[in-house]
Amino acid sequence: MSLKTRRQRAFIHGVIALAAAFVLFVIPFIFVLINAAKTPGESASPSFTLPTEWHLWQNLVAVVEARDYMLLLAYFNSTVITVGAIALLVVFGAMVGYVLQRRPSKFNRVIYGFVLAGLMIPPAVVPTIWVLQGLGLFKTLHGMILIQFSYGLSFTVLLYRAFIATIPRDLDEAALIDGAKPWQIFFRVVLPLLKPVTVTIIVVQSITIFNDFTHPLYYLPGSENVTVQITLYNFQSQFVSQMNLLFMNILLVTIPPLIVFIFFNRQIVAGMTSGAVKG
């Protein structure tokens, strides 16, 4: 196959991929945006028809003020859960991945088996609720942070372990000869080199946690513990006759993860491929 033919095929595949992405992601976003700017009467039958009068700002204010500013509370709760869980995932995921990669032993093989099991075994909701109730963490943000941390830890450890394999052991040995302690080797030598995969984990996991619906529904009931995705569930009945406000709520929930992905998509690819290619 000639180089010209390969380039033509690569171009065609790229065009197909862009077209598929446009159909799957851009068109639904445009549909939501258009209907979020309509009046209640025009949005009763959602369509791609442009509104006669744009009520984007009025609908935004109405959604934010609904139910005593529930959406702002939901943003606060989701942000606290996301930041707390990401901080735990980065620190402990990197530490576990470092130990598994740099300290091979029979005990570490058992730990690695549990890490893989965490990816394959589905979570058990009822026993988890019992544990949270026993610890006094049910219906609390702290408990939800620990839930998101535990569910994302296996994926995080595997990424860190693969990336740490690309870092030469000579750096560890040189720091050890210079008198550095094990914790100093990790935090001062290894951890700064993990920036690409750390950015990947922060972006991927933050979007996953911020957009999570089922886990807060199970483990974080109560109107004071509402998260952004739960607002869609709560507002669905309230705005049944005002579809424009429901679409506006969907738009407000969708924009933050979309912005994060747009600005950090290159870092996501770099972090995912570095460990895969070099490991």
Automatic annotation (TrEMBL):
GO biological process entries: transmembrane transport
Name of one Pfam family that matches: BPD_transp_1
Superkingdom assignment: Bacteria
Alphabetically ordered keywords of this record: Cell membrane, Membrane, Transmembrane, Transmembrane helix, Transport
Domain spans labelled ABC transmembrane type-1: 75-264
One GO cellular component term: plasma membrane
InterPro entries to which the protein is assigned, alphabetical: MetI-like, MetI-like_sf
Transmembrane segments: 12-34, 74-98, 110-132, 144-164, 185-210, 245-264
Coarse class of the protein's main subcellular location: membrane
Gene3D superfamilies cross-referenced by the UniProt entry: MetI-like
Membrane-related topology note: Multi-pass membrane protein
Keyword Transport: yes
Location relative to the cell: Cell membrane
Family note: Belongs to the binding-protein-dependent transport system permease family.
Protein name listed in UniProt: Raffinose/stachyose/melibiose transport system permease protein
